[in-house]
Amino acid sequence: MEKLTKQEEEVMQAVWHIGEGTVKAFLEDMPGTRPPYTTIASTIKNLEKKGFISSRLLGNTYLYTPLISEEDYKQKFMQGFVQNYFNNSYKEMVNFFVTQKQLKPNELKEIIEMIEGKNNKN
């Protein structure tokens, strides 16, 4: 699976949130300063070419639907991220965040509890 650009990920967030919708609906769902309509339309066409969304014509409007779930994308992305940057070791990834002081001791304890099955938090 190809990694999405930042702009493509932002559009996909709107697509995943809405489900099936139009370019206008996705644009309205995007937080903050929104790019121009034509930029979103172009990004959506790129996402369709990459196989992330499909389209169907309804009257004179295209409706777009995600072909991959957000969860599946996260899983594939994280697998590639860990493989490419941490020698396929989640332990090395956690160690990196600990040494960079990005992971606090109480958060590390929560992670250990989740792994041990003592904590059902997501």
From the structure above, extract its key features.
122 residues, mainly alpha, two-stranded antiparallel sheet, 2 strands
Short description:
The protein is mainly α and 122 residues long. The chain has helices spanning 6-18, 23-29, 37-49, 70-85, 90-99, 105-115, and strands at residues 53-58, 61-66. The chain has 6 helices and 2 strands.
What does this molecule look like?
Helix content is 57%, strand content 10%. It has 122 residues and is mostly helical. The protein has a two-stranded antiparallel sheet with strand order 1-2. Strand 1 and strand 2 (61-66) form a beta hairpin. Helix 1 (6-18) crosses helix 2 (23-29), helix 1 (6-18) crosses helix 3 (37-49) and helix 2 (23-29) packs across helix 3. The two termini are 25 Å apart.
Summarize the helix and strand pattern as letters: HHHEEHHH
Q: Supply Rg.
A: 18 Å
Q: Could you give a short account of the major beta sheet?
A: 2 strands, antiparallel
Please report the total strand number as a whole number.
Answer: 2
Strand order of the largest sheet: 1-2
Task: Average the pLDDT over all residues and give the rounded result.
Answer: 90
Q: Indicate the percent of residues in helices.
A: 55-70%
- Shape by Cα distribution: elongated
- Can you tell me the residue ranges where pLDDT is under 50 for at least 5 consecutive residues? none
End-to-end separation: 25 Å
Total DSSP helices:
6
Beta-strand level of the residues, as a percent range? 5-15%
Structural class by secondary-structure content: mainly alpha
